Amino acid sequence: MAFAGQTAWITGASSGIGAALARELARRGARLVLSGRNVPALDAVAADCGGQCLVLPFETTDRAAVLAAAEQAWTWSEGIDLLVNNAGISQRSLAQETGYAVYERIVAVDLLAPIALTQAVLPNMVARGSGRIAMISSIAGKVGVPMRTAYCAAKFGLAGYGDALRAEVAHLGLQVHNIYPGSIRTDVSRNALTADGSKRGVSDKVIDNGIEPAAAAAQMIDAMLHGEREIIVAEGAELAMGEARRTPDALLDQIGAFMAAGYVQRMNEGAE
């Protein structure tokens, strides 16, 4: 019951990885804030989880809605111990055929929305001196994959934000985990956007044969509890690709040490 008495807020909690994380965290004793847009599906996940659950639907790309949700979520249980930025949308289209509006939509949902939510929660976590933030990136946030140029751009960006944020807040008692799933058995491919922005509607064989969400969720949570900063959840070739692009812990330590060495002060003084 490692999360007993703690509160976890999960976006994209109505299905897939988000729903699996909710169920696993509930099993480990957490109170849950479940967010997404599909209220009946969120209610069903909450019923599966039992215990204390707040269903908090909002549109992640609506800045005012994000700020209001952050205030409500924090107040509900006097704090958020784990924020999981999981909501997202994928892509299946060649760059040369893809409308710019598709890039705008995917970057808005997969990159800017989780940044906005994290920025809304961050001051309270810093003031309290504790908290975890998990960014659900992708193996496609480590390795550029064909037919996913917008998705890769957003997921690479999310990982970069997470790494830089960790360097800034680790000495303040916060942990930031970048999570890189490979093929997990979800509807991610069916819901992916095509070149004109329409929903693809069909799945990929590799997704259908992927890791069960429950197993992936347990692996992610175990790795967070062990303090892992880069968490790769994949099999076969995808695991090999992720490991080939893994950032060495020594480099993460080196970047994190900049803050303790007075990096911010030197930057503000123009010394860097």
The CATH homology group name: NAD(P)-binding Rossmann-like Domain
SSE run: EHEHEHEHEHEHHEHHH
Report helical residue fraction.
40-55%
- Cα shape: globular
Radius of gyration: 18 Å
- In the CATH scheme, what's the topology name? Rossmann fold
Arrangement of strands in the largest sheet: 3-2-1-4-5-6-7
Protein architecture, described:
- The protein is α/β, with parallel strands linked by helices and 272 residues long.
- The protein has a single domain (7-268), classed as NAD(P)-binding Rossmann-like Domain (Rossmann fold).
- The chain has helices spanning 16-27, 39-49, 63-76, 100-128, 149-169, 205-208, 213-225, 236-244, 249-260, 263-268; strands at 7-10, 31-34, 53-55, 82-85, 131-136, 174-181, 230-233.
- It starts with 6 loop residues before the first strand and ends with a helix.
Task: List the topology elements.
Layout: E1 7-10, H1 16-27, E2 31-34, H2 39-49, E3 53-55, H3 63-76, E4 82-85, H4 100-128, E5 131-136, H5 149-169, E6 174-181, H6 205-208, H7 213-225, E7 230-233, H8 236-244, H9 249-260, H10 263-268
Parallel strand pairs: 1-2, 1-4, 2-3, 4-5, 5-6, 6-7
Q: Top keywords for this entry?
A:
272 residues, alpha/beta, Rossmann fold, 10 helices, 7 strands
Structure at a glance:
This protein is α/β, with parallel strands linked by helices.
